[in-house]
Amino acid sequence: MISFFRHAAVALDLSEASDLIVECVSTFHNLGTKKITLVTVLPVPYEKEGTELDTSKEKNQLEEYQKTLEQAGFEVDIRIRSGLNYYPPTEILTAANEVNADFVVISNRGQSKVLELLSGSISTELLQRSELPVYLINLDLIENPEKSGGRSLKLPQPCNEAVKHVLYATDFSDSAYRTYKVLRDMEGAGIVDRISMIHVQGHHAIAIKDPVSRDRLTEQNREQLDRIRNKLSDRTREETELIITYGTPAKEIVNTAKERNATMIMMGSQGEGYVKDLFLGSVSSKVTRLSDIPVLLIPAERVDEES
Questions:
Q1: pLDDT tens, 75-123?
Q2: CA pair distance 129, 131, nearest whole angstrom
Q3: Would you say residue 275 has pLDDT above 60?
Q4: Strand 35-44 to strand 7-11: parallel, antiparallel, or no bridges (unpaired)?
Q5: Rounded to whole angstroms, how far apart are CA atoms 83 and 211?
Q6: Which of 48, 69, 115, 232 lies at a 20 to 30 A Cα distance from 143?
Q7: Dist. CA 223–CA 27, nearest whole Å
Q8: pTM score, two decimals?
Q9: CATH C-level class of 162-291
């Protein structure tokens, strides 16, 4: 079994979403996960500096989640990070590094405007800073008259089905290839049942007025996808679909996932340089906001750049 998803650092804010995140994570045996560290961040307001924050309520709730996950067969630990103006994205990543986690699990927490803004900030920071893979669990916000506020959260699909059909998005960069190597290892270990591959030809391709040149570009991209597909095992290679589209990358990726009934989107989260970081980070961030299925983001290898 592959080893890079053995230990998950799971970020919980102890809201309604946390119940669903724990329910979802309890199925992570299919990723090869053995250990889970539950992480909660409690910022201390400036006016309470110097006073000891009572975390007993949060600790009790985390211990309930711990029992649930231990009963599901996981080794479980708890981390509560509390301090003056602690910022959740950086504290989550600090905790993940301290416990030597292999990947980080977060949630979008629903689709209301307030929650969307909050989750967008957290996920964007995590994507920009994380040197670990990030697994985003998308939750739907639905009408529920029985709930306070008239709404509640739900999982859009059973979490144990997330790896049944993975849509792998690539721009043929080194970062995308690193993501592919992770996917190939998952497929080789029997974790993934089915794969589709997509390359979005951006507006530069649409701007090519010569049909022959545009067709040549499309054929070159298809040949690259085909070479990637040929490295898969016999179990999935023949059934792997190659998809080339035109348009805005994030929208095309999400729309294709819906059209093909994909159960997860897998892509790189960052480029290798500052400019690439901004571009690819923007695409992956938009995909996490638009997608209604889980998104697994693999970071680029970080290389120290000379100033």
A1: 999 999 988 778 888 899 999 999 999 999 998 764 443 344 345 566 6
A2: 7
A3: no
A4: parallel
A5: 60
A6: 69
A7: 36
A8: 0.87
A9: alpha beta
